[in-house]
Write a structure and sequence with these properties.
single chain, mainly beta, Mannose-Binding Protein A, Chain A, 9-stranded mixed sheet, 3-stranded antiparallel sheet, 2 helices, globular, binds calcium ion
Length: 174
């Protein structure tokens, strides 16, 4: 957990006695097990699951399958994956995108019943190709420190990345 324990001492002076209160604050920026990178919280999940299973797993963790909004965010994720894998491993991760509803209409599916168009993209060479006519879910393909996007069959089993908002919470524990 990305938490920082800060102890503050506050002095309250009464008429007769002095009361010393020690108040501890816990600042929790990201859900348990998530890493804070450039204003968002990510969890790289090595377990392999279908796209729907991956999406449900992220939700159980209080997050969603990752949405990559711009090149800066993809660079952050590349850095995180390079820390996990080094530079010589190929790995594939589910993202929150799909063209399930209309072929070639790629959208982010982060909320039930609502989808948003994908603006920034980083498709690999000749992707998306809808190979076999059955590739409707979006993956991030990590290849030696760099990533690109591909469309694959939603029932394939892949690792995935969950993303949660970066929130500064203050909890008084004492
Ligand atoms: Ca497709
Ligand atoms: Ca493809």
């Amino acid at each position: 957990m990305y938490c920082e324990l800060i102890t503050k001492e506050t002095t309250m002076k009464g008429l007769i006695l002095i009361v010393l209160n020690i108040v501890a604050y816990v600042y929790c920026d990201c859900p348990h097990g998530f890493e804070h990178v450039n204003g968002a919280c990510y969890k790289v999940e090595p377990l392999e699951a279908s796209w729907v299973e991956a999406k449900m797993t992220c939700r159980i963790l209080g997050s969603e399958l990752v949405v990559i909004e711009d090149a800066a965010e993809e660079t952050s994720i590349e850095g995180m994956l390079t820390q996990v894998h080094g530079s010589h491993i190929d790995e594939v991760y589910w993202l929150s995108g799909a063209d399930i509803t209309n072929e070639a209409d790629w959208r982010w599916f982060t909320t039930d019943g609502v989808s948003t168009p994908i603006n920034y993209t980083n498709w690999g060479h000749n992707r998306p190709d809808n190979a076999g006519g059955q590739q409707n879910c979006l993956v991030l393909s990590y290849h030696g420190t760099k990533t690109y996007w591909d469309d694959v069959n939603c029932y394939e089993r892949h690792s995935f990345i969950c993303e949660a908002p970066y929130n500064k919470e203050e909890v008084i524990i004492g």
